[in-house]
Amino acid sequence: MLEIVSVVVDDSLRSTESGCEVQLRLKWYRSLSLSCIDKLEVSLDRQAVDPGLLSLEINGHEFKLEELDDLVEEYWFVQDFATLKINQPGIVKHGESHNVHVTLAVRYPYIPIGPGRFLTHINDYSAVQVAH
Amino acid sequence: MDNNKPVLGTTLFSFTNEWLQRMYTFDQLIEKVAELKLGPAVEVVGFQSIRGFPDVSDEFARHFRDLLDHHELIPSCLGANCDIGRRRDRLMGEDEILDYLGRQIVSAKKLGFPVMRIQIFIGPKIFEKIVPLAEKAGVHVACELHSPLGVDHPEVVAMRECYDRIGSEFIGFIPDFSCTMTTPPNSYWDELRSAGASEGLIDAAQEIWLTDRPNPEKYAALADAGARFEGGPGVIGQLNLAMTMFGQMPVARLAELLPYTRHIHGKFYEVDASGCEPSIPYPELMVLLKKQGYHGTISAEWEGHAFSAGTIGIQQVQAWNAMCTRLLAN
User: Fold this and answer.
1) Chain A, nearest residue to B191 by Cα
2) What is the CA radius of gyration of chain A?
3) Interface test mutation site (partner B, options A9, A30, A72, max chain B beta carbons within 10 A)
4) Of B129, B128, B125, B122, nearest to B143 (Cα)?
5) What is the pLDDT of residues B288-330, one digit of tens each?
6) B29 dihedral zone (left: phi>0; alpha: psi -120 to 50; beta)
7) Which residues of B touch A112 (CB under 8 A)?
């Protein structure tokens, strides 16, 4: 479903002073609050990245992953990009190729499938990108 | 505008692929509806199209109303959602639900929508408490009846009893033609073929869909067929989806829902080159609506984007509009 959008934008890997970043899209047809993110995991070259090093920049704010659960009124507008940052200086250098694997699981809070359970979609992206 | 027929229109939801590809701005989509005569009625899913939803700024509301007026379009329905599962650790409480829906009712009023769509799962108990909010705002709050719901579904029966008891015109239903299909759509079968399903499996699934059995029996039959034709787990999951996404309520039963109907979702998956929707009995549906004297709005709701990335929503809605105009003539 919704193959028109990729969770990680191709060619969006950037090397930065604080580490690196990629652009994400919410792979759904409507906006959702950040609290609906069930899981956001990253591996670089098949090595899992410590979640403590990750942050998500959206709507002009930067959030650590542990903050997302409470962000019930912070919406990821469906057309917007979010910047996923890995905060580890030097982790990716300009011009290098890296396998980027992102798992973004999103809970649809208005589609109940059982008592207290909601339709959840797990989106996986895995591709080699060259860091700009 | 002819007042003796259903009023045609479009939900911007039909343009989901174009929207996600960022091909058009909100204003440009409205302008397309006007330019291609896909109105006059316009429906919008709040959380898809409006930044800042469930709230709407005064400025945006003014701009929206002006834009529609300028193009001689009329707002038909605002798609609202009750995000009861937005917290990982608990459901929304009753007060939170009423507050969340209340904000969307206020937004519907600001934008000029006479009808607001919600989902039926909130149930009669909470729905009763929405009535005063709806009446105060002058917004009709209506539950969408999407497959697998139908006239006899226990949730629908419970809501009907609630409506009969309360007797307010500000609550009702929005029937969706996904309830009255004759077969799953071609694009659905095509997606299964791409996922590796054999023709034998597809034929078996089609036969199972057509039978009049409870869903659990259908799932078991599909699992059987999957094993016989070697369909993998992904394929079986998709096959099960057919039993809930594509409903089989006979068209005639829709008549029982019309007294409660505030708006209709003209669901469709494809209008083919001959101007027909092969999986939904549009000729029968339009005859019924005319015969029953339904003069409310119907949105073209293209849902082919569930199975296809093609940015063909605009072209499909054009075809739908031509089909319905032809069927409603004389």
Assistant:
1) A1
2) 15
3) A30
4) B122
5) 999 999 999 999 999 999 888 899 999 999 999 999 999 999 6
6) alpha
7) 84-85, 121
CA separation, residue B271 to residues B185, B246, B267, B324 (Å): 11, 17, 11, 11
d(C-alpha A77, C-alpha B53), whole Å: 9
* Measured distance CA(B279)–CA(B240) in Å, rounded: 18
Distances (CA, A) of A29 to A3, A84, A110, B11, B325: 11, 20, 13, 13, 28
Checking if the pLDDT of A1 tops 60, the result is no
**Does the CB of B282 have a partner CB in chain A at under 8 Å?**
no
User: pTM above the 0.90 mark?
Assistant: yes
Say how far apart CA B15 and CA B24 lie, in whole Å: 9
Q: Which of A4, A67, A76, A107 to mutate to test the interface with B (most CBs of B within 10 A)?
A: A4
Please choose, from the candidates B228, B240, B232, B310, the residue with its C-alpha nearest in 3D space to the C-alpha of residue B269.
B310
In whole angstroms, give the CA distance from residue B206 to residue B221: 11
User: Does B305 contact A29 at a Cβ distance shorter than 8 Å?
Assistant: yes
> So what's the pLDDT on residue B143?
97
Q: Give me B74's structure tokens.
A: 């009329």
Residue B217, φ and ψ in degrees, nearest 5: -70, -35
Alpha-carbon Rg for chain B, nearest whole angstrom, is 20
Tell me if B107 sits within 8 A of B53, measured CB to CB.
Answer: yes
Distances (CA, A) of B8 to B29, B37, B183: 17, 10, 24
Is B51 part of the contact surface with chain A (CB cutoff 8 Å)? yes
Contact at 8 Å (CB) between B52 and A73? no
Closest CA to B117 of B306, B16, B262: B262
**B238 touches A at CB < 8 Å:** no
- Residues of B labelled as active-site residues: 146
Binary contact (B48, A30; C-beta < 8 A) = yes
Q: A39 has which bridge partners?
A: A105
H-helix or E-strand spanning residue A23 = strand A19-25
